[in-house]
Write a structure and sequence with these properties.
single chain, 168 residues, 5 helices, 5 strands, 21% strand
Length: 168
């Protein structure tokens, strides 16, 4: 069973004022994913809020995609093997980078609150840190989407209709 989750949240942007409760929501999302996935032991995750310019730069640098995106995941583990923080014994899952600017745009586009969008991006990215992938589409993408919705429903944030747009 999941022991504890340390979520280190940093804000490296000034484009969007961070709403009250968003940090707690991000922590709840990380914890809910680990519970659902029956993650064993303690875990550490880092979440950074950035603006569109910064995420564009990171997307270009790490994925060779020359545009902004909503979220980037940088997993530290592979095939269920993770580096361990020697001070705490926690498995280091990796880094999540969320463009709050993009999240605001998408929340408006999909007609739901920013909280719902940030929660979705966090859950989506946590699943990536745990090894899920949707890039190839097909069954893997469907499975990942189902897991996202299951977690968001548990958190009381189920979607109101279809909001997922493919950027291909």
């Amino acid at each position: 069973m999941t022991d504890k989750v340390k979520v280190i949240i940093s804000n490296d942007q000034k484009a969007v004022k961070i709403p009250t409760g968003i940090r707690l929501l991000v922590r709840r999302c990380c914890h809910a994913v680990l519970l659902q996935e029956e993650f064993d032991g303690s875990a550490e995750v880092s979440v950074t809020f950035v603006d569109n310019a910064k995420i564009h730069e990171l997307n270009k640098q790490y994925r060779n995609i020359d545009r902004e995106t909503d979220v980037l995941s940088f997993p530290l583990g592979e095939n269920g093997e993770y580096d361990v923080n020697h001070d705490t014994g926690a498995k280091m899952l990796g880094d999540i980078v969320i463009s709050l600017e993009k999240a605001v745009e998408q929340a408006e586009m999909y007609g739901h609150p920013l909280q719902r969008e940030v929660a979705f991006l966090t859950v989506h990215s946590m699943l990536h840190l745990l090894g899920y992938d949707h890039e190839a589409g097909g069954l893997e993408a469907v499975r990942m989407r189902e897991k996202e919705e299951a977690v968001l429903t548990k958190l009381g944030l189920q979607r109101n209709g279809s909001y997922y747009l493919d950027e291909e």
